Amino acid sequence: MPDLVRRIDQATPADRDRAVDGLRALAILGVVLGHWLVTALVVDTGTLHGDSPLRHMPELTPVSWVFQTLAVFFFVGGQVAAGSYASAVARGTSYGRWLAARLGRLVRPVTVVLVVWSTAAGGMLAAGVGQKTVWALCKLVWSPLWFLLVFIVLSALTPLVARLHPLWPLALVLNVDIVRFGFDAPGWLASVNVIAGWLVPYCLGAAGARGRLRSRTTGWILLLGGAAATAALVLWAGYPASMVGVPGQAVSNLDPPTLAVVTFGLAQCGAAVLLLGPLRRALRRPAAWAVIAMLNLYAMTICLWHQTAMIVVTVVGMAVGAPRTGSRTVPDTLAWVGARLLWLPVFALALTALWALFRTYEQRRPTGGGVRASGRERGAPMSAKRYG
Hints:
Oligomer: single chain
Order of helices and strands: HHEEHHHHHHHHHHHHHHH
Low-confidence stretches: 366-388
Strand content: under 5%
Radius of gyration: 21 Å
Number of helices: 17
Mean pLDDT: 89
Distance between the termini: 12 Å
Helix content: 55-70%
Shape: globular
């Protein structure tokens, strides 16, 4: 292990901004832990369906404020994509080659998940498993893929939006919400916010790539202003307090994004700007950097398979008669919460096994025409081969 840590540290370019990788790792861990904490698989009346402790215990809503980190994910994505594209242009690389190299690392692992779960769904239906159960399982795995699709679209639009001021998409989200909630507009109109909402942190990240977010004052303005705006929208404009979807809730802040989740994202981006300095200092330590580097190498594998890990543990627990609380019961008590915390290491162990099976699809190199990431593409994923 010390030798691996040393090799990872030595393989890292001296001008690489390790803090950006640290932010990405925190965002991915937030998504994973958030899903594991607020998603429940309940077995009753012979079927399996999804539920959430936030529906039964609204006092746990602050959990969604901590672990809903998608804005940070798009903030980092915008910063890395803008820097990567600028570097590609400087080298004379075409837009097509740049985009193909950038998206290959996303498309391959997503394709594997879709193939595996399509096959699994067909097998379960052929074996007589109920359609509701199969749909509940597939929905858990496939529903998080929406944000990757949005990320792919924004990545493709990077040359057009890299210099777009974040206030423009923010204003679009505001106007869509006014028409949507104030004038009973058709439901399809809200889909505009799926792109516009996440374009706000993406554009902020692109501004960071141009050196526009170096001031801690900017970070504090984003953090405090975004938090104040979100609190006002929740307290006086009727927006839900939860920053994730809750079963049975009339309006979800996340599907599609509302103004409240966008202003909350501004606060998160402000916190990210303030964390850059402390993260740079912390990640000078080789051991800490090795952990972050490995998480970034396989970020998509971890994100794509974490729900499958929870499902596998739940199904195996049913088969062997493992304790039900925190795993297969209705999440309506604090006892469920305590038991779920004890299940988290088991989920992590299952995810490690899935990572070992599917990690190669994320790190496979392009066979030709690809763009090799350089150290100057701040925060761009490094090749696993560089770590030995």
